[in-house]
Specification:
Elements lengths: L6 H19 L3 H8 L3 H8 L7 H10 L5 H14 L14 H9 L2 E6 L10 H11 L5 H14 L11 E7 H5 L5 H15 L4 E6 L13 E5 L8 E4 L6 E3 L2 H17 L3 H25 L4
Parallel strand pairs: 1-2, 2-3
Antiparallel strand pairs: 1-4, 4-5, 5-6
Protein name: Transcriptional regulator
Pfam family, one: HTH_31
Organism: Streptomyces antioxidans
Length: 297
């Protein structure tokens, strides 16, 4: 029941096991909450892995479910202990999307659709800072710098020599045309995107405007997949004040089908590199024109 995974996935696995025990006992979350004199929302958060699970929580739940298998109880208690270990992101303080980072850290592959900005795992430091500054106009500089550092730390999964993250990104033309920071930043960013697309575990597909309407017009989404079959895929939808994680098989299948349509409508890998290169050249020409037009004094 345990393996070399981070605390987020451990909490998720433990929550799934606790849900299974509750269902085998034939109890509702409301009934469990009433017996333990806690809120129903606490039971739900424990079972979906969004809340830290203490060994005391596991002990109380196992007693409620009358689990007599001591080896199982001991295993669940150990999982609870390990799930409370801190991930690398805790060293950066309060990171608002730490649940997602935990999933991403343990994922084997990501399928990403980005309609507005270039994928975070493929951003240059300059582009990342400009994106975060624009998204958080009232944030102090130290908070922006912290988020940039977290983003760069996340990118280490792409270059991990032992277990590189498999990344497939479909990127809308709008994300390539939008001038984030300035034209020089955009030119450098798109050149970097092309270079990264040559990595054997990275695929980038461009989705030009002239492809017309497509299933991704409702917004950005990420599908996270894991190497262990017991860890079902997760669809991540980023929000302004809260994020959404979809784990039902029907939801994952719906988004997976959407992604297949997006990949089919997008340019292939070679065509995408050519398209992105031309975009980079457009930004470079604009930067040159702006530099020549700028006052010399």
């Amino acid at each position: 029941m345990t393996s070399n995974v981070g605390p987020t996935v451990r909490r998720r696995r433990l929550g799934q096991e606790l849900r299974r025990l509750r269902q085998e006992k034939g109890m509702t979350a409301e009934e469990v909450a009433e017996e333990l004199m806690v809120s129903q929302s606490k039971i739900s958060r424990l079972e979906n892995g969004r809340r830290s699970i203490s060994q005391r929580d596991v002990r109380d739940l196992c007693r409620t479910y009358k689990v007599e298998d001591k080896a199982l109880v001991d295993s669940l208690m150990q999982m609870a202990k390990e799930s409370r270990q801190q991930g690398w992101w805790n060293a950066f303080g309060d990171v608002p999307y730490s649940v997602y980072i935990g999933f991403e850290t343990d994922a084997a592959s990501l399928r990403v659709y980005e309609p507005q900005v270039l994928p975070g795992l493929l951003q240059t430091p300059e582009y990342a800072e400009a994106v975060i500054s624009g998204a958080l106009p009232e944030a102090p500089q130290d908070q922006i710098a912290q988020r940039v550092q977290v983003r760069l730390r996340r990118q280490e999964r792409i270059t991990d020599p032992l277990a590189p993250l498999r990344l497939w990104a479909v990127v809308d033309e709008a994300a390539m045309r939008r001038v984030v920071g300035n034209s020089k930043i955009m030119s450098d960013q798109l050149d970097y995107l092309v270079r990264m697309s040559h990595e054997p575990h990275v695929t980038v597909q461009a989705l030009p405007f002239d492809m017309g309407s497509h299933p991704g017009m409702s917004g950005q989404f990420t599908i996270l997949e894991f190497s262990d079959e017991s860890d079902t895929s997760v669809v991540y939808l980023e929000g302004v004040t809260s994020d959404l994680y979809l784990e039902k098989l029907s939801d994952v299948q719906s988004y997976s089908m959407m992604y297949e349509h997006l990949r089919a409508q997008a340019l292939n890998a070679d065509q995408s590199r050519q398209f992105i290169t031309e975009m980079a050249q457009e930004h470079a020409r604009r930067h040159q024109e702006e530099s020549e037009a700028a006052p010399s004094g």
